[in-house]
Amino acid sequence: MEKPAYRLCYLKTKTIKKTNKYQYIEDFKRLGFGLFCHFGLYSVVGKGEWYLDGVRFEGQDEYNALMEKFEIAEDWAKELVATAKAAGCKYITLTTRHHDGFSLFDTCGLNTFDAPHSACGRDLVREFVDECNKEGIVPFFYHTLLDWWKPEFKEDFPAYIDYLVDSVEVLCKNYGKIGGLWFDGMWAKPEENWQEDRLYATIRKYQPEAMIINNTGLNALGKTGHPEIDSVTFERGAPTKVNSDNKPIAGEVCQGITDHWGYAEDDICVKPVAELVELLVDCRKYQHNLLLNVGPMADGKLTEIESGTLKYMGKWVARNEAVVYNCVPADIQAENADIVTDGKYYYALIKKVPMSANAHVARVEDNLRVTLKTDKRIVSAVWLDNNAPVSAFDECGFYAEPFMYGTSLGVRVAKLELE
Fold it and tell me: Looking at residue 35, what is its pLDDT?
């Protein structure tokens, strides 16, 4: 009896299919824009995520008592994910446990210093993952490496590593497929044996395609480390090209909307949306991701300024999706612009483009001249924000025309067809 055609087709496809063991890293690079979320017991205090660092020796009991005030809104995860999605973020990295040792997940008996044993009485990581999966957002887990709460971190480091690995195993086993693990704090004890082989092998056992990221901190931007590391980090820094000689390596810049990572009620230093858009563009010209941080308040809700910033970031992303998700660094350069490509078209990213206006409304500025450094010529060119034609002054150059009055997006992108 002849086999069904679909079965024959499947067998043929299976035979000739070539797999890329690092495809998950390439997929991560195309996520482009993620949301960092520092949320924990410190959010109740409203003085930043390092609050316990200043009180842990004389105020640990008082800090632990904050569990009785940790009452989280039922829709916190829904609002967080919806805000991230509207901003154009494709993934969210949540602090499942920060340096204070408090866990947002059910530690399954490892301790009782977790959200299910707090006033909220719920597994917040479960709620987060479920909402991400519902909305097509990739969930990532931040997990601290240093721990101010666990005595073994200071007194019996091998025992602490057992606890750390067990905690990570809980996260890898209990929440379905995740995008990756984001570690932070190895810099606290650089001379200790962190048993990285063991830690990363635990992740690979349960989550073979999870990104493994270990933050190098403020002073080692873009530094590569253990062979299992899939992405280097640039904490509050400028992105640069990374070394991918041994295997594909991604890059990720983490930056906050405010000065603090965790909620700080007296932090008024909010970065302008235009500045953050420029940072996103700087990341994407290297095909690195931007991980932009928010710090939810005590009930898990975002502040108005952070949610508003993300809303306006979304306005720019929506008009320029092609360069946020689908492009790689181009093989050509230009004066007054950065160039990326999707393989078919080239895109010129031009910063600080002004709006056009009556001379009594805004200062008149000369249009930038963008000149491509290539022997190719421009066949056609349009602006991504409104699909209007670009004014070329020769076969390799064009004017960075101002935005029409009523629109001011800071960075303007021209879509170019070259031959």
Answer: 98
